[in-house]
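In this notation, each integer encodes one residue's backbone shape. One such record reads:

___
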Amino acid sequence: RHHCGYLVSLQQVEFLEHCTHHAWLRDLNQVPQKLRNLLELNKLLAHQPWQIKPDHLRELLKPGPDSWSISELVHALVLLAHVHALSGFALGCGLNPEIDSQVGHRYESATQAEYTVSDSDTVLELDSCSSVSSSVASSASTVINVPG
């Protein structure tokens, strides 16, 4: 539900600079099972923390090759709670990804950007990096070139 692009892009850059497991960002199946086991708890912590039950923690703590120790789990939960709180703060402040990040804002010249405005619904199409579009377009549309 919530997607804090600012923190995601910031953490992605940091991860790529300091970690050798780049495949983790491309495919969730590349992430060790022990970390993937946190996904359900993380979703609940982010959106419905009141739904967390002792069984969620027991499942992570039960003996096995991918089990968590109590101290590891507490540490992980503190980190997750911190990131969720920071995401809420960033979203509340209206922070956006930096202009030089891949998901950040971009300035485009008049030859690169074309905006299509429809009579019934707004359709925005950017020819370069951004791909924002609504597929509901009416037959009467106007193309406006934006000066650079």
In short: The radius of gyration is 21 Å.
